[in-house]
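Interim report to the steering committee. The following record documents the input for HNH endonuclease (119 residues).
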Amino acid sequence: MSRKVKMIEPRVCAVKPRIGRAPGEKARDRERERTQHWRKWYHSAEWKVLRMLVLIRDRFTCQMCGKVDGNTSRLIGDHKEPHHGDRAMFFNEDNVWCICKPCHDGDKQRMERGALLSR
């Protein structure tokens, strides 16, 4: 005599991940790509080479907090001074420094917002 095995319903529901992009961030990124012509420069081979030169120059060390990280995906080639679409300033090695993602997304953003508010 064969019996069918019944599936047991899970008692815990699936939970959405709490990390990742903020709601609406993808749409915001798409809009920025569409309206700001210089955003495509971040995808160029020229930028990728410059970024790596800066990471090597700065010895894979965040220039804000001093943290060393060999995982380049967690390091940002960040512009010290905003380039405002100026190609020469965008690709100027002296205007780019290595900072870690937490510093870029936190401290640096607060500093930039504060500078905008104090104008």
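The CA atoms of residues 60 and 71 lie 8 Å apart. The committee is asked to note this result when reviewing the revised timeline.
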